[in-house]
Design a protein that fits this description.
By secondary structure, this protein is α/β, with parallel strands linked by helices. The chain is 61% helix and 7% strand. Helix 6 crosses helix 8 and helix 31 runs antiparallel to helix 32. The termini are far apart.
Length: 724
């Protein structure tokens, strides 16, 4: 060509010129289509972690999801493995891919989205879908399939289309690690028949279920699996040398594989560190997370770091709720408690709970209750202390205590409205009419409200005790003794002796600090009951002496009568004549106060004491009168106890058949009332008067089951009796 260009600049087919003279002809070659390297087989999935154990059931589940039966179809199965940070999602995915390499002759691609976010190619914002991450992930896949850099399309849509084309004639596996959004998965689904895609994510990614994906939540290891992993990493001989400490170490790590691996690494690095030493370090909740760490000159691995990554992905409102839940005293909770603790309405809190569940930071039990893994709870609690005001934790405990106090008060009222109480229930419930509150309580709609209330208390027992401890720790003395008093209704039905003792001690000490002598007297007299059952008679006597003084100081007649009744229970064992005097004093005080049920209780225990003293006819009269009063007051539980004692008196009179009839009927009534401790006592005495040895053995076996469940010292004696 002939031309004259003045001040020209040439960039390939583009020319920038100030002046052009003459004709210009351009000759250029059209870019060829991206080359297809059919012989290139990428193998990018990392090898599984060393000493991978357990997860057989999960791997089998993946087989069922990702391996097509018979001929390969055009459908591409997708599996999403989700779970807590550090639970072993990546290790499980890599293990499955490694075992199934031959099933994918077209190769295995691996994309680590966490690395992409770390490199700055994406924003890391889950809400946006990570478009830049996906584009770079597609570029990585296309390069692995043989597309040269100069032929990579620049747009996301063009890269997606090219990946579909390049994967169409391959049977391949795509593994996507640490995905945060469904939009990161869909463009990377391979087209080839028999192909599969396996993604891991802290998030559940439930939206992918609409596309036919299988959602596979990965749980922590059970006790056996956790010990197996520790033995594999530390050496089984080391575990066998300290089996109890090893079990405790697995518990403290919560079955979380990353925690177990870090703990094992510490034991390997520091050979002088024993398992018992490490358990002692981790026993303190305040520093547990900091001790589950291992560091070298190049890096530090901690459970906190893994959890922090998931926490940072949370929207701000969900992150705030996460921190609040870490401050709850108990291990489980429902949506109502979450709302109260976070000062939100149930309508506001439920979507946030759903977000935390989707992020695998919150577990849901079969009964619908929520639970934070122990290490997750400690991480959330760290967030409270770092990000919130200094008094936030105390506020959370105060709200939780108020919530549980109101519900426990309603449960107590539902079981027995006319029981002696020092606490002002109307004030607690914020109502003028307590009976109206009971009628609209959560237990009112049940077929058997009283039994439903006891069942709720039993289900919440661990959380209620944790709340009591936290309330006492933060100096909430009034709420502590109030909750302790209304919680007594549970222990009167299910005698968890150690728990009862702890709850009563916390309440009595709080009442003393709060300067309420009536409450202190009530709780110290109640405390004498588990102490006596635990064989701590001297401690029971000390508590009753204080209770007597505080009751007189309060001027509360019915309370004084109640303390005399409890004193009689102690004297039954040590001075029967003084016991009779104490019961008569209780009876007189109740009559003076016009307390019908209190008088019936005193009369009942007086009859028991008279029987113990050998005055059987007088005892029968007293017990029959007490049973009639209890039935008139609709107190079937105490009426059944009176019937059992009538049977015992008849047995001493030589009326074995009458005794058997009374004791058998009483055991049945007590079982209906779920008064297990007294049912067990009736069954023991029934076994003594039965002529059929097999029936007697059945009664003793049932009694043993009850004692073992409640932690009663009687269990050991009954085991020996059954053996004999």
């Amino acid at each position: 060509m002939s031309n004259s260009l003045s001040g020209s600049t040439v960039h390939g087919p583009v020319v920038q010129a100030r002046e052009v003279h003459g004709g210009i002809t351009f000759n250029y070659h059209q870019a060829p289509a991206p080359p297809r390297h059919a012989d290139r087989r990428p193998d990018q999935v990392p090898r599984p972690v060393g000493r991978f154990v357990n997860r057989r059931r999960d791997l089998a589940h993946l087989d069922g999801v990702l391996i097509e039966d018979g001929e390969a179809t055009a459908h591409c199965p997708v599996g999403v493995v989700s779970g807590l940070p550090g639970v072993g999602k990546t290790a499980t995915a890599c293990q499955w891919a490694h075992h199934n390499q031959r099933r994918f002759p077209g190769g295995q691609l691996f994309i680590d989205f966490a690395a992409l976010r770390g490199s700055g190619s994406g924003s890391g914002d889950r809400s946006g879908g990570g478009g830049a991450d996906v584009s770079e992930a597609l570029a990585m896949c296309l390069r692995a399939l043989g597309v040269e850099e100069s032929y990579l399309p620049t747009g996301l849509a063009e890269r997606t289309a090219l990946f579909r084309t390049m994967s169409a004639d391959r049977r391949m596996l795509v593994v996507l690690d640490d995905v945060t959004h469904p939009a990161q998965v869909r463009p990377l689904v391979p087209q080839g028949a028999g192909s599969a895609l396996l993604a891991t994510s802290t998030w559940r990614l439930g939206e992918l279920a609409l596309d036919g994906a299988a959602l596979l939540p990965l749980d922590t290891l059970d006790a056996e699996g956790a010990l197996h992993l520790l033995g594999t990493l530390c050496g089984q001989r080391r575990i066998d040398a300290a089996p109890e400490a090893a079990v405790r170490l697995a518990e403290l790590c919560g079955g979380l594989p990353i925690a177990l691996r870090i703990a094992a690494a510490r034991l390997q690095i520091r050979q002088r560190l024993t398992i018992a030493d490490l358990v002692a370090e981790l026993a303190d909740e305040q520093g547990r997370l900091s001790h589950i760490s291992v560091s070298s000159a190049h890096e530090e691995r901690t459970v906190s770091a893994a959890l922090e990554l998931a926490y940072r992905d949370l929207p701000a409102p969900a992150a705030a709720l996460y921190r609040t839940l870490g401050g709850l005293p108990g291990r489980s909770f429902d949506a109502a408690l979450a709302a109260v603790a976070s000062d939100l309405t149930p309508h506001q809190v439920q979507p946030l709970l759903d977000t935390l569940e989707a992020a695998s930071l919150l577990g849901v039990a079969e009964d619908g209750r929520y639970r934070l893994h122990d290490l997750v709870r400690l991480h959330a609690l760290e967030g409270v202390r770092q990000a919130e005001r200094p008094d936030t934790e105390r506020q959370i405990v105060t709200r939780a205590t108020g919530h549980y106090l109101a519900l426990t008060a309603l449960a107590d009222l539902t079981v027995r409205a006319d029981r002696l109480r020092i606490v002002d229930l109307a004030d607690i419930l914020g109502v003028a009419d307590v009976s109206a509150a009971v009628a609209h309580s959560p237990f009112a709609a049940a077929d058997a409200p009283a039994q439903d209330a006891i069942a709720w208390l039993e289900a919440e027992r661990a959380n209620l005790l944790a709340t009591l401890r936290a309330a006492a720790r933060y100096g909430l003395d009034r709420q502590t003794w109030q909750l302790s008093e209304v919680l007594t209704v549970l222990f009167l039905h299910h005698r968890h002796l150690a728990d009862w003792r702890e709850a009563a001690e916390l309440g009595a000490d709080a009442a003393a600090r709060d300067g309420v002598p009536a409450a202190e007297a009530r709780l110290r007299s109640l405390l004498s009951r588990p102490l006596l059952d635990l064989g701590r008679d001297e401690q029971a006597r000390e508590q009753l002496e204080i209770a007597e003084r505080r009751a007189v100081e309060s001027g509360h007649l019915v309370l004084q009568a109640s303390v005399q009744e409890f004193l009689g229970r102690y004297l039954d064992r040590h001075d029967p004549q003084r016991a009779i005097a104490a019961y008569r004093s209780s009876l007189a005080l109740n009559i003076q106060a016009g307390e019908e049920r209190g008088a019936a209780l005193a009369g009942y225990f007086l009859g028991c004491a008279q029987a113990a003293a050998g005055d059987l006819d007088t005892a029968l009269t007293a017990l029959e009168a007490a049973r009639r009063t209890f039935l008139a007051l609709y107190d079937r539980r105490m009426a059944a106890r009176a019937l059992a004692d009538l049977g015992r008196v008849r047995a001493r009179q030589g009326d074995r058949s009458g005794a058997a009839a009374d004791l058998s009927a009483a055991a049945g009534e007590l079982r209906e009332q779920r008064a297990g401790h007294y049912e067990a006592q009736a069954l023991e005495d029934l076994a003594d008067v039965l002529d059929d040895a097999e029936q007697a053995r059945h009664c003793l076996s049932r009694a043993l089951e009850i004692y073992q469940t409640g932690g009663s010292p009687r269990a050991a004696e009954l085991v020996a009796r059954l053996a004999g």
